[in-house]
Amino acid sequence: MTTRIETVLADLSAKNKSALIPYITAGDPQPNATVGFMHELVKQGADIIELGVPFSDPMADGPTIQLACERALEHGTGLKDVLAMVAEFRKDDANTPVVLMGYLNPVEAMGYEVFTAKAQEAGVDGVLLVDLPPEEAEEQLENFKKNNLDLIFLIAPTTTNARIEQIAKCASGYVYYVSVKGVTGSAALDVDDVKQNLDRIKARVDVPVGVGFGIKDGETAAQIGAIADGVIVGSAIVNKIAENANDVAKAQAEIAAVVGEMNQALSN
Question: Are 32 and 249 in contact, with CB atoms under 8 Å apart?
């Protein structure tokens, strides 16, 4: 059965366009803001939304997203709340794919079978668990497949070819290439280096490749959009939320401006 993610990425590929995939942390700066933010992202051109599940120890993330998790956790935002947000979003948007991005602990606490069933029921399309290695993922693939959920993996500049081939056996929807060494919010972006690694990855995986980390404006989005199937942007958006944490309306306007600029750059 074809997933929403596969359908959207195939349609964009036919138009020779890269997907715009913004990330926000669910519950940041407060839980009742998230669904409105999601709709605004779509309005500004988001093709897929990555929705972060707040976690107390987000080890792959830099200070920007760590602090977003802290703000969300201050309001008690947990995995059940995030699923409820997706269900609320689905009442008015049946088409935009939503990917949950987070860590294993909350999923294991809920139980894989319960989580995958509830995620499908809520309208989730894909799951990226930063600390789920492909070796362990193989045991859970059936749970994800029977609930029509794509399982998305990270690939780093240091990932070996053998490891990429192992990931390719489990991955669906797309894979997320981390464009720089380090945590989210890292600044340096070497487009030539990204291109070389994308060629290496695309020779070994059958799904589209999205690129994240280091994309901060329209210019960098356009540079990556020219070579990747998807442009993933997180910290540049989450920074705007942090700067306006006490004014949700302003935060929404600011993230609209960031995503709108990137969408325009990709369209051009």
Answer: no
- State the Cα–Cα distance between residues 101 and 165, nearest whole angstrom: 22
Residues contacting 15, CB < 8 A, separation 6+: none
- Tokens 């107390």 belong to which residue? 56
Which of 40, 50, 150, 229 is flagged as catalytic? 50
Catalytic pick among 28, 40, 47, 61: 61
- Domain boundaries, given as residue ranges, for the chain: 4-267
Burial class (CB in 10 A: 0-12, 13-18, 19+), 160: exposed
For residue 206, give the amino acid letter.
Answer: D
Bridge partners, residue 178, by sequence: 212
Q: Is 113 among the catalytic positions? A: no
Length of the chain: 268
Q: Is 24 helix (H, G, I), strand (E, B) or coil?
A: strand
Active site residue 243: no
**Residue ranges of the chain whose pLDDT lies below 70:** 58-62, 181-188
Burial label, 1 (beta-carbon count in 10 A; 0-12, 13-18, 19+): exposed
Cα separation, 6 vs 2, whole angstroms: 6
- Both tokens of 190, joined, read 């070497």
CATH ID of 4-267, from 3.40.1280.10, 3.20.20.70, 2.60.40.10, 3.40.50.150: 3.20.20.70
Residue 48 phi, psi dihedral angles, 5° rounding: -140, 145
pLDDT tens, residue by residue, 166-223:
999 999 999 999 987 654 444 567 888 999 999 999 999 999 999 998 899 999 999 9
